[in-house]
Design brief:
Structural class: mainly alpha
Helix content: 55-70%
Strand content: 5-15%
Strand order of the largest sheet: 2-1-4-3
Distance between the termini: 117 Å
Oligomer: single chain
Number of domains: 3
Number of strands: 4
Largest sheet: 4 strands, mixed
Shape: extended
Order of helices and strands: EHHEHHEEHHHHHHHHHHHHHHHHHHH
Radius of gyration: 35 Å
Length: 439
């Protein structure tokens, strides 16, 4: 994941991509709730900014994109990362003598059926919109797809083939001429890339496919479930061989991978013993330097969480504090990876925070923390620790109580008011009576 604080950094759109009405509908109805308005506008802007005659040396600065989108540089990169995560844009860094250039490759918008077949995207959309709206959208797109094709039975194809209609010299038909071969090579620019979600880790899919084929699981089935299998291996810290070994009881020879049974089997039976050493070594090798802003205690914690896959770290915390890891807790950790999209070290810090003063993981509490971190831009372990430190400082600051001042009375400016309810004539009569008695 790349970011720059330089708005003058040049960018270049490397390819052309046409958005048809059906693509636009998928973008607005399915992708927009996930990536947001700014990311959608950025994608369409990049598509329109492609110029087939523009050279790499003519790359434009990023601030021109900011002006088009009317957003800050930080907001721009947040939108770009969302496009990268769902696979709509691939970003490359081109190094040359004049400096670095950001190169964007826009990907073709997939069909609605391909979107719903990607369970990570579909699950995230359901979380954003709710079950009712999600089901309504799914039904709407499925009904529309069915209206474009009529089901007809008892068909026999009788189409003419090429050689029944056209004639070519035998030599040309078998061995095309040099001009034809050259033309084919010159026009081979590669297929249009369809958007696929970006996985932070790479796996040997050829090896995994070979392992599954031993148990009558086809290569197409592995390719279809690729995103889900990657999420499981990442969350549990499993290699290709270990994944197959763990889910072996769910393979029944029906050529299918039952994801529901696989997740249940991992949640119930997984024990972090077979690959602990290899996982720790791999995560330690990939760990990024944390910088000098963290205190020693936080630095130690960050080093610790980078040594474990999320499920393994959950077992590690349980070993320290007692108790057992429940299948519900493992399912919740898996959601933090596949639905929320957190990295391993951020998930581990979230687990550490959630279990600091609680004996179990409460889903509402964990999701509240996750929402808070997302809203405050927490994407790395160091950012999570800095955010927690700031919150702790705010809690420790004494609250200043505002004193309430009562207004006094300035008696020097206030005249005395004498009021009486007695009649003056009655008082005069009383005084006259006293005089007569004295006389």
């Amino acid at each position: 994941m790349f970011e720059s604080s330089n708005p003058k950094m040049p960018y270049f759109v490397a390819n052309q991509m046409t958005i048809f009405p059906n693509h636009l509908k998928v973008l607005i109805k399915l992708y927009q709730p996930i990536i947001g308005n700014t990311a959608l506008a950025l994608f369409q802007t990049l598509v329109q900014n492609f110029d087939s005659y523009e050279m790499l040396a003519d790359a434009q600065p990023l601030y021109l994109l900011q002006e088009q989108l009317d957003c800050s540089l930080q907001t721009f990169f947040q939108a770009l990362h969302r496009l990268e995560a769902v696979g709509l844009v691939k970003t490359f860094l081109q190094h040359n003598v004049h400096g670095d250039v950001l190169v964007f490759s826009v990907q073709q918008v997939p069909s609605a059926s391909a979107f719903f077949a990607t369970s990570l995207l579909a699950s995230l959309l359901k979380e954003k919109l709710g079950t009712v709206t999600f089901q309504r959208l799914s039904h709407q797109f499925s009904q529309e797809a069915r209206t474009h094709r009529k089901k007809v039975t008892n068909l026999q194809e009788v189409s003419a083939n090429f050689f029944e209609v056209f004639r070519l010299p035998s030599d040309e038909a078998i061995n095309p001429s040099t001009e034809v071969v050259t033309a084919a090579h010159d026009n081979q620019v590669g297929p249009t890339q369809i958007a696929k979600i970006s996985q932070s880790k790479t796996y040997d899919w050829a090896f995994l496919t070979e392992l599954f084929q031993r148990y009558q699981i086809t290569a197409d089935e592995v390719q279809t479930k690729k995103a889900d299998l990657a999420s499981l291996m990442s969350s549990y810290g499993l290699s290709e061989q270990e994944l197959v070994d763990e889910i072996l009881p769910t393979l029944h020879g029906n050529h299918k991978l039952d994801l529901v049974q696989i997740k249940r089997a991992l949640a119930v039976n997984y024990r972090a013993t077979t690959s602990q050493r290899a996982v720790k070594a791999q995560l330690a090798a990939n760990a990024q330097p944390a910088g000098n802003k963290l205190q020693q205690q936080d630095q130690t914690l960050l080093t610790e969480v980078r040594q474990y896959a999320p499920i393994a770290y959950l077992y590690h915390l349980r070993e320290q504090r007692g108790g057992r890891v429940t299948s519900f807790e493992k399912s919740l950790v898996l959601d933090l990876n596949s639905v929320w999209g957190f990295s391993d070290e951020v998930i581990n810090l979230l687990l550490h925070t959630a279990l600091a003063n609680n004996s179990t993981l409460n889903r509402k509490f964990v999701e509240a923390i996750a929402n808070s971190w997302i809203q405050n831009g927490v994407a790395t372990g160091q950012q999570a620790l800095n955010y927690l430190a700031k919150r702790q400082q705010k809690k420790q600051q004494p609250r200043q109580r505002r004193k309430r001042l009562e207004r006094g009375t300035d008696w020097s400016k206030k005249r005395a008011e004498i009021t009486t309810k007695d009649d003056p004539k009655a008082l005069e009569a009383i005084f006259k009576q006293f005089k007569d008695q004295e006389g």
